Amino acid sequence: MVSQAGGKHILITGGSRGIGRACAIMAGQRGWSVGVNYAGNEKAALETVQAVQKAGGRGIAIRGDVAREADVIAMFDATEKAFGKLDALINNAGIVGPKQAFADYSFERMQRMFEINVLGAYLCAREAARRMAKPRGGKGGSIVNMSSIASRLGAAGEYVDYAGSKGAVDTMTIGLARELAPDGIRVNAIRPGLIDTEIHASGGQPDRAARLGATTPMGRAGTADEVAEAAIWLIENGSDYLTASLIDVAGGR
Ligand code: NAP
């Protein structure tokens, strides 16, 4: 289905739906080969791959849980086996929890949040560093971490654990960017505001983006495509001097 030759190659975690899907399709439009990782929704992942191919790129769907080390290694292996050495990672997979008072959080809730949003993001970034660092035989490249403006707002009364998990992603971005710059890898984060995706329904608030989006300076929620524009800019030419940057795509929120 895919060949080894030419073009640039990317793995997008959580590429099956929402922001990750928009990034995958936009990368396809620009000629990238895209590893579309997903957790369980195979139908959505296959639809995204089809859309990537229709847009002119190459794509494969790769099931895997970012919180499991063996899955992470396997998803990078599968992408490189299909396309060749990686040029970029969009480290995007993430979850929210139900709106809840902090004092009522269960241990299991917090454990899941930090396993997926923090450990998962760190594992994927580590794997990308191992494969893309020039001193390790890689080509260099770009890592884009999908953080959230919750990291500076705190998400009080909603999900303070989620906000903290994204704070860890911001801090990783700055440290990794400085550590990996000599190895030819740029590391930046995007901090989306209220974006219209299914993540809000998964946290029990399907109307959240529309309801709170109306209260923002721009008076609306953002779209996944508007976040993808920034992510694709960060992996392509034109952003060459950016590293360790935290870019808010949040309509002024
Ligand atoms: P979404 O629509 O809920 O999509 C989540 C994606 O992540 C899906 O592709 C899902 O796969 C995948 N995923 C979930 N858990 C995973 C795991 N353990 N391993 C691998 N993949 C996993 O979410 P979204 O709104 O696009 O959010 C994407 C990222 O942007 C997240 O990191 C989120 O925190 C961040 N963000 C979103 C907003 C917003 O308002 N939407 C704002 C700020 C930041 P399946 O399809 O298989 O379930």
TrEMBL record:
<protein>
    <submittedName>
        <fullName>SDR family oxidoreductase</fullName>
    </submittedName>
</protein>
<dbReference type="InterPro" id="IPR036291">
    <property type="entry name" value="NAD(P)-bd_dom_sf"/>
</dbReference>
<dbReference type="GO" id="GO:0016614">
    <property type="term" value="F:oxidoreductase activity, acting on CH-OH group of donors"/>
</dbReference>
<dbReference type="Pfam" id="PF13561">
    <property type="entry name" value="adh_short_C2"/>
</dbReference>
<comment type="similarity">
    <text>Belongs to the short-chain dehydrogenases/reductases (SDR) family.</text>
</comment>
<dbReference type="InterPro" id="IPR020904">
    <property type="entry name" value="Sc_DH/Rdtase_CS"/>
</dbReference>
<dbReference type="InterPro" id="IPR002347">
    <property type="entry name" value="SDR_fam"/>
</dbReference>
<keyword id="KW-0560">Oxidoreductase</keyword>
